[in-house]
Specification:
Arc Repressor Mutant, subunit A; 109 residues; mainly alpha
Length: 109
Amino acid sequence: MNKDYLGEFEELVLTMVGILGEEAYGIAIVNEIHERLGREVNLSAVHVTLYRLEDKGHVKSRMGGATNARGGRRKRIFTITNAGLAMLKNMKEARIDLWRMIPQLKYSV
């Protein structure tokens, strides 16, 4: 598994984990992506991606408390790690460098 590369969906999910902080769990990420980007994503795809990001060391997880709203079930809360933050920063810098190479965008980035 390549820890030095994130696919577009991995980057999106990792970004949402960073945005949501202590509220970063599966359905909250799905809802945030839909609200902010108008993009429909599958909850299962988000869960698989979160576990892959955890394997890569970009997020860590813990079990939250059980709630009546969830029928007594606990939710897995994800938080971004320092490695995850560094990955997002590196990806942003690399994209900005590439955007600056596009003549039409050279001075607007």
